[in-house]
Amino acid sequence: MRINKFLASAGVASRRKVEEFIINGRVKVNGKMVKDLATDIKPTDIVKLDNKLVKPATNFVYFKLNKPKGYVTTASDEKDRKTVMDLMCGVHIRVFPVGRLDYDTEGLLLLTNDGDLANILTKPNSNIAKSYIIIIEGQIDKDEIKKLSSGIDIGDYVTKPCNVELMEEKDNSTKLKVTITEGKNRQIRRMFEAINKNITFLKRVQIGEIKLGGLSRGEYQPLNSKELKYINSIKR
Fold first, then answer.
1. What domains appear along the chain, each with residue ranges and CATH number?
2. Global pTM value
3. What is the mean pLDDT of residues 7-27?
4. Could you identify which of 17, 53, 132, 173 might form a hypothetical disulfide with 13, taking C-beta atoms 3.0 to 4.6 angstroms apart as the criterion?
């Protein structure tokens, strides 16, 4: 098994993230640093990340968290900000966040020790729908909604078509639900910036068939049997 797959399947992080660890010289095999992503790991090899022994995961776990604003979606932060792992203090097995929500975005975040699942959900061509509730300043017209839903240039990329649903209009704000099937960095915010709209509230409420449900801010819970069935279906 290649080193990146070994680390991901051991629940260290997603395959993409563990490749960064390897390239940055944080991984040792039998006491020697390895930076070659093609390195094969044998059952007898001793693998360490940051000098801590890595063992293959024998039991996968899956949680959903209602991430509040003011938390970063990483295991640790160089600026000493609060991370989503601070909210998982009752979980006594190493898990990591799947994908990310930015500092000012709240809502549904999945955490697991299943690197293969993380790889499926975060790869660019996964086509797994993600839904967000958004509040913007002011109003939005039909032409602007059409621009968003048909695909819009966000500077270095033209987004794929998506679904934009107008939910509520007030004198000074508009509430919408947007469902995308990709996940570029800050994509939702950049889409609305492209039509000169300022987002004042952004919350992810669904990933595939997994919904945020009634979780309060900062709460987490294991996925239920229906959600686990969905997870297993996309891993096949």
1. 3-53 (3.10.290.10), 62-124+210-235 (3.30.70.580), 130-207 (3.30.70.1560)
2. 0.83
3. 86
4. 17
